[in-house]
Every structure is written in C-alpha cells, then in structure tokens.
Amino acid sequence: MTAKNSITQLPQMVAALPQAERERFERIFLVNSSIGRLNPGPGMEEWIQKYFGSVDAVREQRVVRVTNVVTMEGSLFNELRARRPMATVEREKLATIIEEARGDPFCQPLERTPEDPFGRIRGRHSVSASNIAKFDGFSGVVIFDEHNPLAFTEEAIADYIDTGMAWLRKAHETDEEAKYPFLLWNCLWRAGASIVHGHAQVVLGKEMHYAKVEGLRRAALAYRHQFGGNYFHDLYRVHERLGLASEVEGTRILVYLSPVKDKEVLLLSHGLDDGLKRSVYRVLDSYVSGMGVSSFNLAICLPPLAPTREDWAGFPVLARIVDRGDPMNRTVDVAAMELYASSVLFGDPFDVAEALWDRLSR
C-alpha cells in the first residue's frame, strides 16, 4: 500500500522532485519545518487524552510553514491539527435555523429590496438588487430564488454567476470608467453574510482593481519579468506534481498549498465559461456533500471589462473557495495571526485533495 502523503512530509516531497520541478517549486514557495515542545503537567493528562488522543502526541509537535514568496501569502500547518478529522456541524440544528429565517427581505426581493438606477437583472434562478449598504459606488446583490443557500444545483450556480456578470456588464454600460469586476458569495453568517437567505454580491470599481486582485496582478507580472514564465501556469504545475491539482473541462483546480483558511481551492480558467461554472458547482458540492462544509466564501476575480493602462496579459479568471468552519462555533477563525502574520490552519491540503479528487471522479 502506498504511504499517504501529508503536509508534514512536504519538505521531503519537495527534496525528492527532479531538479527542474524543484526549482520551479522554490521560485514560488518557501517551506520550512520546526518542532514545538512542551511539558504538560500531570493534571492535564485527562484533558489532553480527550482532545488529542495521547500526552505523547502534544509533547513534540511538528509545524510546517509554507510561504508563497511571489504573493507573500503564508500558512502554518501543525501536525497535530492537520491529522484531526474534518469537523461537521449539527445539520439538524442548522437546517432549523435556516428554515426559521424564512420571511427575511430577500424572500420578497421585488417588494423589500432596492433596485439599481439601471433596474434589475432577472435570471432563471435569481434576481439582482442594489446593495443597501454599499461596498463601492457600483455594489449589487444577486438574490437566489432558493432560500436555503446550501440547497444549490449545478444549473442554479451557473445562473447566479450569469446574473452577476449581466449586472456587471450593465453597470459598466452605465459608466464606462467602472471596469474592474469582482463577484463574491459569503455563505451564512460564519462567512460574513448578514442575511441567511442565499445571495451573492457584485462590485465594479474604477481607476484600479481591488487591492488584493491588483496585488496579485503585480506579483504575477514581476514573476514573468524575473523568470520569463506565467506565474499561474507554474503555480498549477507545482501543485499538479505533488498530487494537489487536476484539470477538468479546461479548468485547472488546485488545492492551495498556502491557503488563507482551511480547504482553500483555486480554480483557473481562460474565461468564465461553462467548464468553470460546472467546476465551481462540483467543488462546492464536494465541500457540502462530501466534506461536511456548511459555511464558505467564494470569490471570482476577473480581469477588467474594458482596456486599461496596466498589463493583464496572462491573468486568468480565478475563483477561490474556502471553508469558514462550523457556523455553530462561537470561536472566530480569523484573528491577529491571520490579519497581521500568517494563516494558522486546521486541515491538511493532501486530505482535502484526496476527498476532492474522489468526489470529482464519480
């Protein structure tokens, strides 16, 4: 039987790569590991055994630190955390909360939500509204016909994206200087949603793309100037070589080695085509049906809708999806480390990849 890969073995896995592949990896990632040691008191043994299995398991803990030196995204993986089982929520309680929220304003969008000056966009499974507390000058909401945000279908996901894109194009027609699009879905309160009813959001900026998208563009451009290659292509190759990436219908799917939070998956495509929409659905379905995820963030980063002064050559349509943890957990998953240092992770990307590839192969 082949030994199961884990994030704690990443330094050895990288060292075993052929030279060219190892050099490509090291152009993007810096990996190091350390051992954290502690001496638990005798009064702690019962508590430690309950939560971590054994006292010996916590005496020495291997921490693997992965930093994307191109984008300066960093993650810390603790061996003890990485091998814990993926948590699931109390499904019945969550379903009750979602059901009890029926009757919120999004259940009657035409009567109880504002519309944009250019009107509403109506999809097959959604309708747009103007965001009452705006992110930017052009800030809209795509309200799902289905109240339960976890009861999505492949057709519905495609429609939510299509409705959002139609809204973005309409906003751009209203003001040609607004050309930097961004689409996001915060699923449930743990992910930042203030209303339970399923909805996504769209924003369109002027003068420059939103800061993190622009930062990624600049990082990719600097990478091209330094190494003569496409950053996103090399990023995929690095993950593919380690068993963390696969191409499905023209969409490149990566279980990211330096995630902002647990189970982050990146999807790269030349355009917002049907293959990408299906892949977004299949990853979300894998999250919810296969991994017990109930709250997540989806972001779709898009190149500008019209020509700009800056260089966007080789920049793909990029979707990022991340688990936000148990909605019933009162402990937040973003704290000072995530805000100002590096993300601290509970899951192992190799476990996520195994679960995802198993689901996508069905």
Question: Could you name the key traits of this structure?
Answer:
362 residues; alpha+beta; HIT family, subunit A; 2 domains; 9-stranded antiparallel β-sheet; 4-stranded mixed β-sheet; 13 helices; 13 strands; 36% helix; 23% strand; globular
Explain how this protein is built.
By secondary structure, this protein is of the alpha+beta class. The protein folds into two domains: 7-84 and 209-360, 2-Layer Sandwich (HIT family, subunit A), CATH 3.30.428; 91-206, HIT-like (HIT family, subunit A, 2-Layer Sandwich), CATH 3.30.428. The protein has 13 helices and 13 strands. The strands form two sheets. It has a nine-stranded antiparallel sheet with strand order 4-5-7-6-11-12-10-9-8, with helices on both faces. A four-stranded mixed sheet has the order 1-2-3-13. Helix 8 (154-174) packs across helix 11 and helix 11 crosses helix 13 (349-360). The radius of gyration is 21 Å and the shape is globular. The model has no long low-confidence stretch (mean pLDDT 94).
Classify the secondary structure makeup into a structural class: alpha+beta
H and E order: HHEHHEEHHHEEHEEHHEEEHEEHEH
Q: Write down how many β-strands occur, each being a DSSP E stretch of 2 or more residues.
A: 13
Helix content: 25-40%
Q: Please identify the top-level CATH class of the largest domain.
A: Alpha Beta
Count of alpha/pi helices = 13
CATH fourth-tier homologous superfamily of the largest domain: HIT-like
What is the CATH T-level topology of the largest domain? HIT family, subunit A
Q: Whole-Å distance between the termini?
A: 22 Å
Question: Architecture of the largest domain in CATH?
Answer: 2-Layer Sandwich
**Number of spatially distinct domains:** 2
Stretches with pLDDT under 50, minimum 5 residues: none
Biggest sheet details: 9 strands, antiparallel
- Rg on CA atoms, Å: 21 Å
State the strand order across the main sheet: 4-5-7-6-11-12-10-9-8
Shape: globular
On the 0 to 100 scale, the average pLDDT is 94
Percent range for β-strand residues: 15-25%
